Amino acid sequence: MAEDSLMRGAVIRSWGTALPPKVVTNHDLEQTLDTSDEWIVERTGIRERRVGGTTSGLAIEAGRQALDRAGWDPSTVDLVILATTTPDQQVPASASTVQNELGIAGGAFDLNAACSGFVYALIAGHGLIGAGMSRVLLIGAETLSRITDWDDRGTAILFADGAGAVTLEAVDGPGQLLGWDLGSDGSARHILDADIGGYLEMDGREVFRRAVRVMVESGNTALERAGVSASDISLVVPHQANIRIIESACTRLDIPMERAVSVLDRTGNTSSASIPLALADAADAGRISPGDLVLLVGFGAGMTWASAVLRWQP
Ligand code: UT7
After folding, report:
1. Distance, CA 242 to ligand 1 centroid (Å)?
2. Is domain 2-172 given the CATH code 2.40.110.10 in the classification?
3. Could you say which of 35, 144, 243, 261 would form a disulfide bridge with 159 (CB–CB 3.0 to 4.6 Å)?
4. Whose CA is closest to 131, among 9, 14, 306?
5. How far apart are the CA of 159 and the centre of ligand 1, in A?
6. What is this structure's pTM?
């Protein structure tokens, strides 16, 4: 490994997404739950979500799309990191299935930091590129529908399935990552959890309260470390849990809502997949130009949080 390799930066080259074909609307949920489309839209912003598939299957689809768009031969990829809370099996890591099916030559591991997982993976990927790797595939993929109690209106309206991926490549110079922050407060782990073989259980109000707080604190820490201010940020890509959480956090971060990406009306909360799905949506819609500053902010079970400020240069 070169002595100066720890100085090496990285940039996102491409992205890919996968959503299962089955759509479950709020009206579908009205048939089985004591809830209404009006309540769900007003309290969460979610209108419909996608359900089905396997975590590795969705991850492979999103990962393949990202590799194809970058024009990368899978044999040149050093590592795949799969952020997920819903692996296909307890052992082995679902990343190994992805590695094999995509024909990736390098290593593979799963990373579980709940809804912050993709940003944790992004920061880890930059670190490993700094340590000498050249090409890393990062994927966030979930099949939360498998661990959702469809009779519980407190969670069934929120959680869903999907995947998003990005390719990350070494560059000469500092690269895109200007500042980052990650953390965890394990004392709050009981407010959102699922036992092995069990369903997600959540104290929604408490998660909401903490989510806004940690998004603001973590976002501000990343901005400070990047040496930029909120007004410099062209686009915020927040975890897609609840539109009211995004609105409250943006207000407190002093970033106008027009600069925030939201896809949760169509996707629901896909945990590790939500930030790459939102990032891909914004990139495909032409909402990010080279040189723009992008703030990614995640929070989730643990409670974990993670933020990153990127200078977009795909
Ligand atoms: O990825 C991170 C994980 N999760 C989150 O970020 C979720 C964070 N929390 C939330 O998004 C919100 O707390 C929820 C959407 C889960 C709930 O919204 P809320 O505004 O906090 O509602 P609440 O729990 O305070 O409940 C208000 C009322 C209650 O009725 P009463 O006691 O006022 O009569 C609930 O029983 O709404 C009732 N309620 C519902 N009504 C219709 C709760 N869930 C539903 C429902 N449909 N699905």
Report:
1. 10
2. no
3. 144
4. 9
5. 13
6. 0.97
